[in-house]
Every structure is written in structure tokens, then in C-alpha cells.
Amino acid sequence: MSEPTETQTRIDEAIAEDRLSDVARLLRELGTREIVHRIEHSPRRRAAVVFRLLPKARAVDVFEKLGTATKGELIRGLQDADVTALFAELPPDDRVTLLDEVPATVAQRLLSGLDESERGVTTIMLGYPSRSVGRRMSPEFTLAHPEWRVAAALESVLADVDRADTIYAVPVTDGERRLVGIVSLRELLANDGDTLIGDIMRPVISVTASEDAEDAARLCSQQGLLALPVVDRETRLVGILAADDASRILREAEAEDVARAGGSEPLRRPYLSTSILRIARSRVVWLLVLAVSALLTVQVLEVFEATLGDMVALALFIPLLTGTGGNTGSQAATTITRALAVGDVRTRDIAKVMLREVRVGILLGLLLGTLGFALASVVYDLSLGIVIGTTLLCICAMAATVGGSMPLIAKKIKVDPAVFSTPFITTFCDATGLLIYFSIAKAVLGI
């Protein structure tokens, strides 16, 4: 998909020359995946032209497979009648995600175009917190009851095959819709039709609808579940998170973490089809935050201006020391953020993590400090070597401890750990490292 086909090139040429009948004819030569790729990687106007020329049935299929950001852009560019029909064809969880992408006035118009039952389901999902699994679950599922026979359960599965998000995992509920177990389609097919569901159902792992969607998706992935049931506070079944939806949530979360670790917000569309203004907006906020926080470093240098004046050689080592501290902190933060994501550590482990990271930092500091001491002593003198070696030891210990604890603190106060990532920790360690450096220099050199 990276290189355009001959047909796709001809489509681009026909659109540029406004030969719309030729575009419609050429689109019939492309598969659905190719059309989705073409729309996703096209500027807004060209994407809208391609979409409008699709037959109605195919347009619905293509629209469902598009990314949320692209759907939002198309919604704003299509006529009301087309929008209402497309929106109604989407699964409820996709509708809710799309409503977060469009302006409030458009969202209200989309909701009003649904029939009463579909509007009710969508509105209920909108009532859950924005990043909760309740906003990403599917309320369309098939279920069984413990007193049912296998034959009855299979009939229910067949009846729901077109409606349910997945039929491979069937939740089992009691008469009050409380979740009591789960049974797979394989188990239903492998047992006699007269077997009771209660005899073959297994204990079930579930999450409440208000839990974080990323945590729920990771649980689903780690446990290898076909579907993760979602319940309310009274353990009544309200939806399921299918394995493919869980994978999509994790991919989105990874893209967000990678972008924020680099000091920007994730792009919602492919890079080449994203406007220059949107790319700039994704970066400018972080640049402003980091520029303001970098003033701390300037203030520290101003405080120790006299110290630098007394011994200019100290200034030569500032890039080495600040770079080492920032890199050490970033390494620790990345390691712990990853450990948090896969469940290796919890927020309650912060004391253990800090103790572990301070020891790692001391070990790294001893290695780097010894090298710094030797080089500075040879090039300058013994006293400056002591300053550099001791500072590297202290900075590495401090940066590793701070970098390791920041993601856990962020998680504890319900902030995305990626926010406390590379750029922020680097800036913090720069300012703190300079304080340590000049304090040691004044003590050792007597200036």
C-alpha cells in the first residue's frame, strides 16, 4: 500500500481534471481496503470526492473501516441525509467514538437522526467517562443462561450472528442479568445439545464500565480472551470488549505514548495527509511548556554566575552533566512506563521502584563518574576531577530515582504517565543537576 497503483494514480489525475464519471468507473476496480487507504491518505477535498462517488452499499462498508479522524472530516463535508444514513449504520461503540470527534452541534444532529432505541443505547454509552471502557465496549452481544441447554444457546447465537459484535465468547447471566460465567462457541459445538450451560460454563473475568479502557484492553490481551465482559456496579452485564477492539485501543495508546514521549500530541491521520497547521498545533503546546520549564535552568545559571566567573572551566562540563542526567532519567521513565503498561509494577510499588532505581543510578554514576574523574584530572587538575566524578555519581542517582518514580506518581494522580516523559524529566534533571554541580564545586573548590 505504500506505492500508489496505476488505477490510484489515474484516479488522482481524474479528480484533478474534474472527470468524475471516470473516477466512479475507476473506483469499481479497487478493493475496499484500497479505497480506505486512498481516502485515509488523501487531502480532505480529494477524500470527500472519492467517498461521494461510491455506491451507497459500498460507501457504508468503507466508512465503517475508516479511522475516526477521517470519519469526522467526512461527516463535516457531507450532506445531512448522507450523514444520518452512514451514522445509523455504525456499531454503537463506533458512533460514540465518532461523536467525540465532531463539533457539539453536529453530534446533536447525528443523535437526533437515530431511531429511539439506537439513540437510547448510544446515549447510555455517552454517559460513561470519556476514557472508560464503557465508551469503547459494544452493547450488542449474544448471551446464555445457566438453565439453558446447549441447543438453545446455539439457536440464540445463530439468531444474533449478524447483530452481535462477536459470537466466539458467550457471557452467561442469571435472571437479573448478573454475570455468572462464560462459555465459548467451541465449547457449545463440542457438547451434546441437551447439556446444561451451567455444567460447562467457566469462571469469568470482567471489568466495570467505569474502568480505564486501556487497562481493560491490556487485561483482555494479557489473558488471551476472545471477549471481556463489561458490567455495572451490580455486576449486571452491560457490554463486551472484543479482542479486536482491545487491540485497537492498545495501538492507539501506544501511538499516543510514543508521540508524548517526543514532546508532541499524536496525529490522527497519516502524516502526508495531515495539514501543516494541524501538525504545528500538535507540537506547539509542548514546546511552550518545555520552553517555560527550561527557564528553571536559566535561573540556576544566573544564581551561580559568580561561581562560573571564578572558574570558567566549570562551564565546559555543563552539557556533559545535563545530558547525562536527562538521558538517565529518560531511560528510567521509559522502563517504568513500559512496566506499568504490561502490569509488571503497580503504583503501590513506588518505594520498591525508587530503592531499585537509586541503586541502578549509583552503579551507573560510579562507572561514569570514574571515567569523568580520570579525564578531568588529566586535562585540568585533581580537584576539578573530583567535582566532575562526584557530580556524575549524584546526578545519575537523582535522575534514575526521579525518572523511575514520575510515571508511578502520574498514574496515582490519574495523569497519563507519558505526560511525565522524556522532555519533562530532561528539563527537571537539567535544573536539579546544575544545582548539584555548582553546590559540589563550591564545596570542593572553595569558590
UniProtKB/TrEMBL annotation:
Where does the CBS domain lie?
137-198, 200-256
Q: SUPFAM superfamilies, from UniProt?
A: CBS-domain pair (SSF54631), MgtE membrane domain-like (SSF161093), MgtE N-terminal domain-like (SSF158791)
Where are the membrane-spanning stretches?
284-304, 360-380, 386-406, 418-440
Principal subcellular localisation of the protein: membrane
Keyword field contains Metal-binding:
yes
Under CDD domains, the record lists: CBS_pair_Mg_transporter
Q: Which domain of life is it from?
A: Bacteria
Keyword annotations for this protein? CBS domain, Cell membrane, Magnesium, Membrane, Metal-binding, Transmembrane, Transmembrane helix, Transport
Q: Does the keyword DNA-binding apply?
A: no
**Which GO terms of the molecular function aspect are on file?**
magnesium ion transmembrane transporter activity; metal ion binding
Q: Where in the cell is it found?
A: Cell membrane; Membrane
Give a GO cellular-component term: plasma membrane
**Similarity annotation:** Belongs to the SLC41A transporter family.
> How is the quaternary structure described?
Homodimer.
Which NCBIfam families does the entry link to? mgtE
Q: What does this protein do?
A: Acts as a magnesium transporter.
Q: What is this protein called?
A: Magnesium transporter MgtE
Q: Which organism is it from?
A: Paramicrobacterium humi
